[in-house]
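Hello again, I could really use a second opinion on something today. My current little project is about how a certain protein chain folds up. You're getting the sequence in one-letter code plus the fold written as tokens. Here's the protein in full, and shout if anything looks odd to you:
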Amino acid sequence: MDGIWYYAIAFIVIWLIAFIFKNSIERFGIEVNFPVIMWKTKRLRGFINKIANLAPRFWKMYMNVGIAVSVICMAFMLVSLIYSLNMIMDSPAVSLIIPGVEVPGSPIFIPFFYGFVALATVLIVHEFSHGILARVENINIKSIGLLLFIILPGAFVEPDESEMNECSRPSKLRVYAAGSIANFSLAAIAMVLMIVCSSIIVPAVFNEGGIEINRVVSDSPADGYLKEGMIIQSINDYEINNSDSYVNAVSTLKPNSIINIGTNQGNFSLKGSVNPNNQSLGYIGIQSQSHYSLNQYFDNQIYSPLLWILIQLPQLFMWIYFLNFAVGSFNLLPMKPLDGGYIFENLMSYIVSDTTLKYISTFLTALVAIIIIFSLIYGFFA
């Protein structure tokens, strides 16, 4: 929870500065209207135009496929969210993710650096793709910028609203689908790069020598026993010498049983708990990674220190993949103001009247919002 306070203090300082210097910063394109701070600029519009004009037919064909993918993903996300209601007390389907912070109720912890870089890629490709498709459809872009909604950072591309309203429904659908499809595309690229780095590049340069603890979860069974940097050598007398042997050993752990862990800094016995993601397994409360050493060929070279950067790449690409896929999927839920809400409205406008569509859209938005809010609150406090 300590990390949350750092974020809270930072956002309080940002809002205080914004209110105190509101009149002074307006000349830099910054608008302060609680609960939103927006920075708008007309720069980069030329760059977006150039990309859009490179292959307009390709962008349209690509996003026609993207519309179909978006609809399938939207249906899957909605069904999954509704289905999750029957297990929401055990494992909430939605959780807040903040880089560098252990969020109560969230089984996922994202290291600050990897999370910051990955979220930046999410915002950049998402909003730029909206802008590119807007220009492909001959919709002018009024501004590009960053925003802060209370404590939630974001980015935006602001198309000309009147031109957007005059577009055909297929054109609107392509623009709305562009953001999430771009996130999915980047996620696929990141997955390929992650596999190449972890299975080819890293093994060629490094030797794997055990498992190293890189994080101990607060208030977990391991808290107070194990520490970051320890190298795990055995679990319940099962020798650990690589990631495969570690996974095999952890899969044998039983809930609420005594776990004996041998490390390079001594042996420890602790009582495990129930794995929050699988109640049939035991839980230690650590995050770990392979412990590497340079191959003899690359050791003691003038460039050897630089090679350690390669170790970070698989994890960086993993978080880029995960966050782009997760945010892209979430954004397709049929609720406004998410893109999925606008896609849903445009599709339904083919078959129902505007009055009926308004009721359906309002109901779905309220339903999805209630499930999300309840999941977040229950996970945080329970």
Observations:
- The first helix runs from residue 2 to 20.
- The chain is about 55% helix and 20% strand.
